[in-house]
Amino acid sequence: MEFTISQKDFSRSINIVQRAVSSKNTMPILTGIYLEARKDKGLHMKATDLELGIEYWVKADIITEGKIVLPASHLSGIIRELPDDNINFKADLDKYEAELTCLSSRFKIKGFDADEFPQLPEVNIPHKITLNCGDLNRLIDEVKFSTSTDQTQPALTGGSMVIDSGKIRMVATNTYRLSLSSLDLDGSPEGKKEVILPGNTLSELSHLLDDDGEVEILIGDNYVRFNFNGIVLVSRVIEGQFPNYQQVLPKEYNTKVRVDRNNLLRSVRRVSLIARLDSNVISISVKDNKMIITSQDSEEGFAREEIEIESQGPEQNINIDAGYLLDVLKVLNDDVVILELIGPLNPLTLKKENSDDFIYLVMPVRR
Amino acid sequence: MEFTISQKDFSRSINIVQRAVSSKNTMPILTGIYLEARKDKGLHMKATDLELGIEYWVKADIITEGKIVLPASHLSGIIRELPDDNINFKADLDKYEAELTCLSSRFKIKGFDADEFPQLPEVNIPHKITLNCGDLNRLIDEVKFSTSTDQTQPALTGGSMVIDSGKIRMVATNTYRLSLSSLDLDGSPEGKKEVILPGNTLSELSHLLDDDGEVEILIGDNYVRFNFNGIVLVSRVIEGQFPNYQQVLPKEYNTKVRVDRNNLLRSVRRVSLIARLDSNVISISVKDNKMIITSQDSEEGFAREEIEIESQGPEQNINIDAGYLLDVLKVLNDDVVILELIGPLNPLTLKKENSDDFIYLVMPVRR
């Protein structure tokens, strides 16, 4: 097995597939990157932690074919530090050992038998849809922060992806707050399909997706495959039932608030400096085009912010977790957000202005 | 107590004195910043962890005088997040409580009785010298990474500062490597003065010193005081005897090497990727204008780098800790460095070209 490849191409490719390398040491070979030199197709690279797998093809000058698995951390560290020149890669496939040469640098790395590397799963009888990479990235970014970290309820640690009636919808909730983001699809398939993607899959997709290009999604029963920009990402889905959130989405509201997102973000952040010393609960009062945000008056101090808003409807007072409001205000980039309130025991709803593609709910805190 | 101050000035001043705030919670008042409003002088701020103290005066519009101590983390968090406008500060000195108002933001913070805040120590009968801030910064940066972290030998956790015969010299060592950096002083006082500055003092000085302006150093027996750019930094000195390093400084060498610093840095860093999997020991061979750097041939792999150098003298082979070489190569910014070698059991010496103001020794590793 021998090939030459530019340092830049090799380093970039390793950075892509390395995201799927296992951080746990249960199977040593999974700490590695699979490399296969094919005269017809170039260098094939893949990595997997058995939940997530990423594969990538990169152009290389293949001299002799072969395959080997090398420890990802050593390989990526070395390639990143090599000069911007051509790298010669030669592997002794009996000893599972690779030799890398670049100008006057020479490295030997011990690896693993490539035949023992697991195959990435196939997605059978998939539901197939296509959308813009930037759109999928928006869907993911708008929901992924709402996933739960509580491993006793696995379904909540992921994001629900639903394809139905020409729409794609992503939802995540930890039962105290919920994000719902949706998009109209061009020519989606018949029927409804629903899977739960692991939180880590959402994070890695968000890292790898550019705004450019299209992504093809093949949704099976146990696996979902994403094809974009030459990258193949295969993710296991989380088994279990995602909660029926439709019933908690408020159908109406009493008071509507139009507020500058950045003003609200900065004010909540300041009040939170005092509130988080207690339990990070802030009180929001809305009355006559003014919003007052306060912390509880505690041993540590007190904070009060006043913001100009546009409000319609009766006065409102609600207590919520400041962190839940900060999370969503940081992710959106709209100038203005809309808040809808019913009463102190009902969820606060946050939406975009002039768009129905995003709904965020925060449950109130009773004190 | 009441004053107004610009958010920018207040935030900048807090950042300066906050560096001396205690990170331990042994005395709650030491987690605070002392604030004193004086009609004649503005706002006086200070903080100390009893080893290090920093004070600073900042311009403020003083309405009524008074003093209070406020928790540094709350105060700095709030001031940093406030808008770029004027802040009104009003304190209730009976309740030890301050109220901050800025546009439509209002904060109350509970604090401490300023009378209980410790005085920064005076430096009696000091030895006084003056030098450029940039020069002191260089002296510190060139030695501070060589301090020891072993608390059982307190003298080695600091840097020795010696004023003698018109020179200032800083030295740090962990017994496996040593940095010595020196500078000629204009008009230094008679006699020799020697103190050990704590490692943390060196770090904080390095953070606060700009390249501009002059620093006045008052060296007493137990404390050293640095005055620069309106900042007063008082540091306790470490008691104990600094080792007599003069005897380990090699008087001569057998082989001299002139090498590009950046080439050497990048090569050692790459070999270290493999070497650190073992014990981070690298072998350096010098012969006929070539330097070969290799890792041990271990279970994990092998690395070899070859660099063009200019060498005079017999062939040399030495094993050293790669980290010790990387530390110094990262800190220097010369294009070229000089290595002097005696033999495999003698220290490796690293110097600047055309300057005697820096010496770095690394002890060899025996294998």
From TrEMBL, chains A, B:
SMART domains: POL3Bc. It is found in: Cytoplasm. It comes from the Bacteria. Residues 132-244 form the DNA polymerase III beta sliding clamp central domain. SUPFAM superfamilies: DNA clamp. CDD domains: beta_clamp (cd00140). Forms a ring-shaped head-to-tail homodimer around DNA. This is Beta sliding clamp.
